[in-house]
Design brief:
Elements (H helix, E strand, L loop, with lengths): L1 H13 L32 H5 L6 E9 L6 H14 L6 E8 L9 H11 L8 E9 L14 E5 L2 E5 H8 L7 H16 L53 H9 L4
Parallel strand pairs: 1-2, 1-3, 3-5
Antiparallel strand pairs: 4-5
Helix pairs in contact: 3-6
Length: about 260
């Protein structure tokens, strides 16, 4: 039964999408007083900078959420532990949260998320601190289909979005995983893409790339796995609150790129 439930959560994570929207960026990074250029690069371009302490010894994660969609403390604790386990940041990882009003733009295209980032992001790389922006939207992705939902997208080297409404809807289904587990799984998975997984900035050390799904792993049970289909249609609660972890192949990739 546990294996069945675990497989269901992995499938749930497989509905995450990856999109690199550096081509959609309309901000030239020349805002007076702030050099944004380093944070306006392609997905995976800052993998080593995020993982190692060679250039940046600390990390500043700015989470901007729409009122009513704040992430749970449990999910944030799991997320921070995931980052500390995989990165060398001797001066620490700081996570700050700020609420904003709804943009009224749902359902969202990545272009619209980029515009929201331009309006709400305040944290950029400074000195020996690398900055990451996470937006938690009050709506869904415009790419959603009846049987394929997008829970989050990593779309730049230090930018990602979670679709809060989709996460809430999924968590409200009968016998679904609790919302904090879903949030943690999405946060960890999407940050895996910022780390360059799989083969989107971080070179694979072994053959584990899913040829049918860019940016994903073909190893069973890995956090970065794309699709495990099942027929029941019911997402059951995960026993013990277990969140899928990175497999050994993905961990080796990160270690080769400067991580733990």
């Amino acid at each position: 039964m546990f294996k069945f439930k675990y497989a269901l959560l992995i499938f749930f994570i497989s509905l995450l999408s990856v999109s690199c929207s550096s081509d959609n960026d309309e901000d030239d990074g020349n805002t007076p007083g702030i050099d944004k250029t380093a944070n306006l690069q392609g997905l995976g371009d800052s993998a080593t900078q995020l993982l190692s302490d060679t250039e940046f010894t600390s990390m500043n994660i700015e989470i901007v959420y729409v009122n009513g969609f704040a992430p749970s403390e449990t999910a944030l604790a799991n997320f921070k532990s995931f980052l500390e386990e995989r990165t060398f940041k001797p001066d620490g990882i700081k996570i700050s949260l700020r609420a904003v009003s709804s943009s009224g733009k749902a359902p969202f295209s990545i272009d619209e998320i980029v515009e929201i980032e331009q309006e709400t992001r305040t944290a950029y790389n400074a000195g020996d601190e690398i900055a990451v922006y996470i937006y938690i939207a009050d709506g869904k992705s415009d790419k959603d289909e009846e049987n394929k939902l997008t829970l989050g997208s990593a779309f730049r080297n230090t930018s990602m979005v979670l679709y809060g409404e989709t996460i809430e809807d999924f968590a409200s289904r009968p016998n679904a995983p609790i919302e904090s587990d879903i949030e943690a799984a999405v946060l960890n998975h999407e940050f895996g893409h910022l780390f360059g997984l799989v083969d989107i900035g971080t070179e694979p050390q072994s053959d584990h790339k899913d040829d049918d799904s860019d940016g994903h792993c073909n190893v069973p049970d890995c956090l970065m796995r794309s699709s495990i289909e099942f027929g029941s249609g019911i997402i059951d609660e995960i026993e013990g609150g277990r969140i899928p972890q990175l497999g050994t192949h993905c961990i080796r990739d990160l270690q080769a790129a400067g991580g733990k």
